């Protein structure tokens, strides 16, 4: 059992953060929040209140205090990341999507059938994302079953909550001969093997869950896509894919599937648009496609860093929200260079400003800009909604699970100065007069993993910064 004491910050609504000061949260042996107390005189009063309320003995709890200048924040949710591409993060040259896949991506992914190489790439990806506060990751692995199952094993042993997708790609049009499923049926059979494996290692899918993963329409036959949709109907498992990322890709979909009226419409016809579906990108979707996504309750993973790296375009988050679509953030490593959701959140803020600069009407221009509160919502509760875990993670409420990070911005010294020369607090230089809103904004725009001291998943300490 755990007791966390100090200041807690989390999203209350999409627009507002809630700050709990002189507060405490008690975590039970299952990793769930058992009680929350706030606004005490001091931390020893909070502790006494929590112990009294729950009838717990002080000896049975492990106490973590956030010092002045530190706060607890929900763990980040990465709704779209290719663990298999982690070794290529930062390497994308001048490519755009289709030539990037051919030049950089397919060769790396294919090479991970070597399990010792897969282990190196996957374990580093998990370690690094955990250290940046990502407590839940929605992963694409590769077509190789053994390597995909290894990724699931590693997430479980290292303690990262994860959705692990064995990638389905059977089309002979898009995929190279050295890296594709032999047939739609083969791809489905391989997917089933990963589902069976994950059920063996984590029977309730409590920490690791399989996710059905048709790579994207150009890589898949209609038969493969319809087969995965059928598997979803039988199992209720979530689905992830890419949609409308890049103009060349959209043209290719129109060529390969001339009978479908749109990219999104094609997925719908195959039965892939469900409330458990996460569609990465959706940069160039039409009004009708956005309406269809909203109608079906499917989610969008916004990957701003990737969309800029691969010059895909600028997704319109405010517009998707206006349509009623749930949106989360994805790093999309290695389309995106960064494995950090904090970086994705600031890039989301920047991309929304680029979208704004293209709008003439002043009121609308102001409206499309995303605020600090909004991008941090995308990084936590918004992402949790996308992956169907909004009742478990993304915020601090009784009954939710303790997926969180302890953030430090420096500790106040005797002079009341928050910056400590001897300590390594990253790029966040505090002066002591900042409001809590200022502090959070400085963390968002100047912070990095040096500010993430400790990370927990389901109450288990999974990372601690030395
Ligand atoms: N579309 C199909 N495959 C991929 C991929 O690996 N990354 C990105 N960004 N888009 C894709
Ligand atoms: Zn992707």
Describe this structure in words.
The chain has 2 domains: 142 residues, Roll (Urease, subunit C, domain 1), CATH 2.30.40; 311 residues, Metal-dependent hydrolases (TIM Barrel). 39% of the residues lie in helices and 20% in strands. The protein contains 15 helices and 18 strands. Helix 3 runs parallel beside helix 4. It is globular. The model has no long low-confidence stretch (mean pLDDT 96). The site of guanine has 11 residues, from helix 2.
Secondary-structure topology with pairs:
Layout: E1 2-11, E2 17-27, E3 33-37, H1 43-54, E4 62-65, E5 70-74, E6 76-82, H2 97-111, H3 115-131, E7 134-140, H4 145-158, E8 161-165, E9 167-168, H5 184-201, E10 208-210, E11 213-214, H6 222-235, E12 239-243, H7 247-256, H8 263-269, E13 277-281, H9 287-296, E14 299-302, H10 304-309, H11 317-323, E15 327-329, H12 341-357, H13 362-368, H14 372-386, E16 404-408, H15 436-446, E17 452-457, E18 460-464
Parallel strand pairs: 1-4, 6-7, 7-8, 8-10, 9-11, 12-13, 13-14, 14-15
Antiparallel strand pairs: 1-2, 2-3, 5-16, 16-17, 17-18
Bound molecules: guanine (GUN) and zinc ion.
What is the CATH top level name of the largest domain? Alpha Beta
Q: Largest sheet at a glance?
A: 4 strands, mixed
In whole angstroms, the N-to-C terminal distance is 23 Å
CATH superfamily of the largest domain: Metal-dependent hydrolases
Hetero compounds: guanine, zinc ion
Mean pLDDT: 96
Low-pLDDT windows of residues:
none
Proportion of residues in helical segments: 25-40%
Shape: globular
* Main sheet: strand order: 3-2-1-4
The Rg value, from CA coordinates, equals 22 Å
Please give the domain count: 2
Give the helix tally: 15
* CATH fold name of the largest domain: TIM Barrel
């Amino acid at each position: 059992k755990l007791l966390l004491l100090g200041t807690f910050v989390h999203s209350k609504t999409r627009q507002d953060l809630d700050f709990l000061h002189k507060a405490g949260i008690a975590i039970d042996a299952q990793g769930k929040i058992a009680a929350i107390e706030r606004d005490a005189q001091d931390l020893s009063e909070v502790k006494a209140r929590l112990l009294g309320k729950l009838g717990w003995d002080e000896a049975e709890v492990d106490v973590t205090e956030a010092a002045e200048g530190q706060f607890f924040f929900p763990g980040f949710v990465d709704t779209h990341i290719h663990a298999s591409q982690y070794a290529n993060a930062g390497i994308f040259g001048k490519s755009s999507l289709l030539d990037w896949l051919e030049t950089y991506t397919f060769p790396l992914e294919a090479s991970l059938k070597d399990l010792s190489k897969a282990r190196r790439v996957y374990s580093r990806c998990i370690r690094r994302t955990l250290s940046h506060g990502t407590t839940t990751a929605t992963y694409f692995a590769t077509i190789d079953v053994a390597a995909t199952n290894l990724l699931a094993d590693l997430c479980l042993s290292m303690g990262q909550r994860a959705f692990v997708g064995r990638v389905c790609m059977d089309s002979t049009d898009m995929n190279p001969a050295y890296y594709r499923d032999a047939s739609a049926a083969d791809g489905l059979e391989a997917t089933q093997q990963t589902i069976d494996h994950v059920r063996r290692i984590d029977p309730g899918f409590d920490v690791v869950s399989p996710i059905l993963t048709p790579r994207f329409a150009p890589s898949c036959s209609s038969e493969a896509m319809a087969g995965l949709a059928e598997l979803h109907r039988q199992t209720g498992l979530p689905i992830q894919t890419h949609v409308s990322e890049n103009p060349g890709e959209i043209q290719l979909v129109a060529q390969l599937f001339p009978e479908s009226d749109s990219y999104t419409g094609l997925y719908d016809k195959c039965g892939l648009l469900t409330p458990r579906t996460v569609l990465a990108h959706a940069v160039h979707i039409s009004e009708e496609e956005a309406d269809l996504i909203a109608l079906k309750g499917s989610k969008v993973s916004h990957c701003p860093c990737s969309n800029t790296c691969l010059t895909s375009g600028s997704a319109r988050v405010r517009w998707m929200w206006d349509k009623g679509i749930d949106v989360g953030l994805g790093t999309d490593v290695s389309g995106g260079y960064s494995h950090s959701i904090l970086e994705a959140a600031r890039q989301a803020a920047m991309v929304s400003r680029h979208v704004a600069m293209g709008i003439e009407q002043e009121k609308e221009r102001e409206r499309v800009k995303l605020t600090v509160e909004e991008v941090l919502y995308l990084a936590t509760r918004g992402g949790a909604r996308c992956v169907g875990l909004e009742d478990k993670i993304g915020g601090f409420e009784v009954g939710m699970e303790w997926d969180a990070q302890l953030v430090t911005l420096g500790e106040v010294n005797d002079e009341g100065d928050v910056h400590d020369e001897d300590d390594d607090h990253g790029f966040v230089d505090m002066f002591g007069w900042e409001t809590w809103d200022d502090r959070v904004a400085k963390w968002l725009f100047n912070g990095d993993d040096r500010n993430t001291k400790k990370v927990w998943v389901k109450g288990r300490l999974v990372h601690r910064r030395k």
